[in-house]
Design goal:
The chain is mainly α. The chain has helices at 31-54, 62-75, 78-91, 99-129, 135-144, 152-173, 176-195, 203-222, 228-255, 270-284, 295-306, 308-324, 339-362, 365-371, and strands at 15-18, 95-98. It is globular.
């Protein structure tokens, strides 16, 4: 059931509540938020490493393909989880901030590193295509869309920042039943879009509309408590959901002669949306497990959670560097005696390189502002 939800006075000027602590008072980190960020970041890296296996049903054994197909089904809510965390923090915070001040503070920390890495990836793509790099062309591409496959998410986050004040004003005034109604309408819209793809929108506007429900869902689930018995039901639902998506993907892919069909794996499809909610609730209860009461796992998860967005920005670069062998050796999903070994080794290497570069860049005052998200 819902816990109490703070309500903003109707006659107060439009403000936004930010998750950022005051310069003089450092707000303690929320462990489950770091847990979700850490898991999402790790799984994003892994899925981009093993993507060629899922796309090559005819090139790998049935056992190997099925193993990574199940893994692929598990990781699909990753982007949605990032959005849900943003919704929980920004829509549920207690700090007041004027609209344009909120936009300035948040975008100023994202736009510069986002642009810098977009240019790096534009150079990388030019080199891969063996074409001369054009800075003007790269800027035009940046304005039109992502210069690398994973950067679409940064446009989504910037779009969510722009609408946050208005969404927050709604959720702070809405009754629990109204929030549930909005989420039901959103899930119904995703279902119609899944069944009739021609109804769906395209471009940044369509993506923002599809993912905006996750923003509100994160706020709602942050304020939702479930008992241990209901949590067991959530876990069972998640397992069944993963199996159904994986089995459906197998059937569709087999029907296309081995060409991967990701119809059930879209980030804004209804089953993935429900799966994201289940994962959010499961990870939210991480503090209740004895293992996560220990200092060392909490320290590791907190570090991964803090740098998750930097890992997201950088990981595609290191996948390219390692798979092309620019460091004098090559690592990929095909390294070693089995794809499982190759994926695990490459994922750890990419994660380590991304964290290491983040650490080094943070030591350089000016450069850190150019390439590191704070």
């Amino acid at each position: 059931m819902f816990l109490g939800m703070p309500v903003q006075a109707p006659n107060r000027p439009l403000t936004i509540l930010s998750s950022e602590p005051s310069p003089r008072h450092h707000k303690p980190r929320i462990f489950y938020v770091d847990m979700i960020r850490a898991c999402a970041g790790l799984l994003v890296v892994a899925c981009h490493v093993f993507a060629p296996i899922c796309a090559g049903m005819n090139d790998y054994s049935t056992a190997n393909w099925w193993f990574f197909n199940l893994f692929d089904s598990v990781i699909r809510p990753c982007a949605s989880l990032y959005v849900m965390i943003s919704g929980a923090l920004f829509l549920g915070s207690s700090r007041e901030e004027q609209y344009f001040e909120f936009i300035r503070r948040r975008t100023s920390k994202i736009v510069v590193p986002f642009f810098a890495w977009s240019m790096i990836y534009a150079v990388m793509e030019s080199r891969m295509r063996e074409e001369p790099f054009s800075f003007g062309g790269a800027i035009l591409q940046f304005l039109q869309g992502p210069t690398e496959y994973h950067l679409w998410f940064m446009y989504l986050i910037l779009g969510l920042y722009l609408v946050t004040p208005f969404v927050r004003r709604f959720v702070q005034h809405a009754r629990p039943s109204e929030l549930q109604g909005v989420l039901a309408l959103w899930l119904g819209f995703l279902t119609l879009e899944f069944l009739f793809p021609e109804m769906g929108g395209s471009g940044p506007g369509g993506t923002l509309l599809n993912y905006s429900g996750f923003f509100i869902l994160g706020y709602v689930l942050d304020k939702t408590y479930i008992s241990d018995s209901k949590l067991n039901g959530v876990i069972l639902f998640w397992v069944v959901n993963v199996l159904v998506c994986a089995a459906a993907t197998y059937v569709l892919t087999l029907g296309h002669g081995g060409e991967l069909d990701e119809k059930f794996y879209g980030g804004a499809t209804p089953l993935v949306a429900l799966q994201a909610g289940a994962v959010f609730l499961m990870l939210k209860r991480a503090d209740s497990l004895p293992f996560f009461q220990r200092d060392w796992p909490r320290a590791i998860i907190t570090r991964l959670g803090r740098e998750s967005y930097n890992v997201y920005l950088m990981h595609a670069f290191f996948i390219w560097v390692l798979t092309k062998g620019f460091l004098g050796f090559a690592l990929s999903h095909d390294t070693g005696f089995s794809p499982v070994f190759g994926v695990a080794l490459t994922t750890v290497a990419v994660l380590g390189c991304s964290l290491g570069l983040t650490f080094l860049l943070k030591k350089i005052p000016v450069v850190s502002k150019l390439f590191v998200l704070s």
